[in-house]
Protein: Chaperone protein DnaJ
Amino acid sequence: MAGDYYEILGVSRNASKDEIKSAYRKMARKYHPDVNQDPGAEERFKEISRAYEVLSDPETKARYDRFGEAGVGGAGSGGVGFDPTDMGGFADIFETFFGGGFGGGTSTQTRRRGPTRGDDLRLDLRLKFREAVFGGEKEIKIPHLETCSSCNGSGAKKGSSAKTCGTCGGTGQVRRATRTPFGSFAQVSTCPTCNGEGQIIEEKCDSCGGQGRKQVNKKLKITIPAGVDNGTRLRVSSEGDAGTRGGPAGDLYVYLTVESDSHFRREGINILSEISISYLQAILGCKIKVPTIDGDFEVQIPAGLQPNTVLTLEDKGVPKLGNSVSRGDHLLTVKVDIPTKISGEERDLLEKLAQIKGEHTSKKGFEGFLESIFHK
Structure:
């Protein structure tokens, strides 16, 4: 055993028995392997349990104070130390983790199952592209368990009540003692008659069949925040299944999927789209209206624009999730259409232009001229 037992529990050498017990409970709950999966947690829990085993017994503690580990070498292996009938803190921890208990220290009320929180539910919801961008209200329909209004969740028929289970005497547990050469051991398990409830319902509620809950289809209006995307998860508090024995309801988790749009694409909070203009518009420049998520927007095309130029329309993108005032940009890729056929008049004009620019078109023809314009 490495380290001083007092240091392991974080108490002084003058700590009282109650202070030692309180420190042990706190640390054991923190490091128990069933709740702490960190590497080394199990070994730490063993150290804590060993320290409490020694310091919780006055005689063992006195020997440890005088001789150290050498004075308590027998503790933990059948010698002095842990008394299974005086395991207040240790029993509480088993109660918390495993739902079981030990004799003597826990009451019937503690061992019986208490209120249980209802299950969380999941709903997958598809949104249109613009719904995801701007958000809004959405009506959904969910099947979930609600507390039975006829019996108020008791499961008993109106005018009757549950009775104490005769098998376990209301504890919700049955105990079986086994004697071995090393001593007596008690095994505690859930009562098979009442399934750990501690009570038996003889006259069941006609509405819920004794379950205390009923399956109900419920309509809800939920708020979709602006800027959600594929995989966004929304939590709707207390709209999961109702709890049992007065326990709180679980939550509803809505997972969002966004449909694609025929015109727009999305990258984070930016929106991407493409437009095509004629070669003359690209050469001379122009003003055109382009579709954005907010509607048509007039864009200035500068003269001499090259194919596949990306123009940035600021603040025309997706609102930032959680801060709808801040928006991304709209990135507009401009394509240039080069015609494959032209009229005779168009050819004459273009050939005149080619002569002015000193371009030779007799071999390359019209396509060669346009190529020379866009790739100089």
Summary: The radius of gyration is 38 Å.
